[in-house]
Design goal:
By secondary structure, the chain is of the alpha/beta class. Helices cover 36% and strands 17% of the residues. The longest helix is centred in the last third of the chain and has 20 residues, at 258-277.
Length: 368
């Protein structure tokens, strides 16, 4: 996954439907819950073309655009009298199912479930309409057992799930070292141990794994327990940026309510601007949202380093999504999917122009 490797345009889908567990997991479990946040809407506020917009996201720092945008009322402000109905999810597949069923209209979600949702529907159910976050993924290890990257050989390293975004990234990195690992079993020169993020800290404490290639805040939780950051995945990407969260919309909702989609995007853009201008306040807002949703906030020794490793941006970094899919192909987890049309960045670019910001690119994978 070196910066010098050229990105390739993907071509045909053949095996995605046969691999329902691959390229889906952004989190774990299939639960979804009403967010519970009720933003005040002025009685005289003018509605857009829909009475409400149903949005979904994860109670996760990499989804802080949604967490903060809802918590601070920044997205609701752009919607006027059209009310937000927010739900949170613990897994990419459940959010995609909610989008397909019409339970949500717009979602914050990772690249792998976006790819899977798009390809499994033959390109008919969703579009990626914006970026949201980059980074926030690290390789952390037991410093007593692993002192350099070369020491990984023969060790047991956790990833969240077979075929998830971090699993694919680690398999690709292993291949670039010239080492061999069977992608399905995880056995080889390095033992890839698929472990739910919720129990990875327990596995680390017990010695079941020697480290983990994981997203935040799991990486910082491990560090708080004595692990050491050996590699930040951002260092492997051009400009140190790669998509970790983007925004998707159902094609039906986009067609029927473009004004609502534009308002949500404007709220997202303005939320990211506020986050980047007010980092400490935004971190506190995101943590307050996590406490409201989960019953507890992250301690400072976890939230502070985790927050610093995530970049909030509007660019979907489309070339990196294309590359992530190609890495899964190289790992033998699926045949090359057809991603043409996965992006529709027209509404976002209209918002960006109006805000005096630079337009973003779809890497040739946009709607024609």
């Amino acid at each position: 996954m070196s910066a010098a490797r050229p990105f390739t345009t993907l071509r045909t889908l053949a095996a995605v439907a046969a691999l329902p567990l691959l390229l889906t997991a952004c989190g774990y479990g299939a639960e979804s819950t009403d967010d519970g946040k009720r933003t005040e809407v002025a009685a005289d506020a003018e509605k857009l073309s829909a009475d409400e917009v149903r949005i979904g996201y994860f109670p996760n720092l990499t989804h802080a655009t949604a967490l903060v945008g809802v918590e601070e009322g920044l997205i609701q402000k752009e919607l006027g009298g059209t009310r937000i109905k927010a739900s949170t999810f613990n897994a990419g597949p459940s959010e995609i199912e909610a989008l397909n069923s019409g339970s949500i209209d717009i979602g914050w979600i990772g690249p792998s479930p976006s790819i899977n949702g798009y390809t499994k529907s033959g390109g008919k159910n969703l579009r990626i309409i914006s970026g949201s976050a980059s980074g926030g993924v690290k390789l952390v290890v037991d410093p007593d057992k692993i002192k350099s990257l070369d020491d990984l050989k023969g060790k047991k390293i956790a990833t969240p799930q077979l075929g998830n975004t971090q699993d694919v990234a680690f398999l690709n990195w292993i291949a670039e070292q010239g080492w061999k690992v069977d992608a399905q079993s995880g056995s080889g020169d390095v033992s890839v141990v698929r472990t739910d993020n919720k129990i990875t800290p327990d596995a680390y404490r017990s010695g079941s794994v020697d480290g983990a290639w994981v997203p935040e805040p799991t990486a910082s939780k491990l560090v708080s327990e004595g692990a050491k950051v050996l590699l930040d995945e951002s260092d492997l990407w051009p400009d140190k940026k790669f998509v970790i969260t983007n925004i998707i919309v159902s094609q039906k909702f986009l067609k029927e309510h473009p004004d609502v989609v534009e308002a949500v995007l404007r709220g997202s853009v303005r939320t990211n601007e506020w986050i980047n201008a007010n980092s400490q306040e935004a971190k506190a807002s995101a943590n307050a949202a996590l406490k409201r949703l989960s019953g507890k906030e992250l301690p400072a020794e976890v939230v502070d380093p985790a927050w610093k490793s995530i970049t909030f941006l509007d660019d979907p970094l489309a070339a990196t999504l294309d590359a992530q899919a190609e890495h899964a192909v190289k790992a033998g987890l699926l045949e090359e999917p057809r991603l043409q049309g996965i992006y529709d960045l027209t509404p976002l670019n209209e918002v960006l122009r109006a805000e005096g910001k630079d337009e973003v690119d779809d890497a040739g994978l946009g709607v024609k």
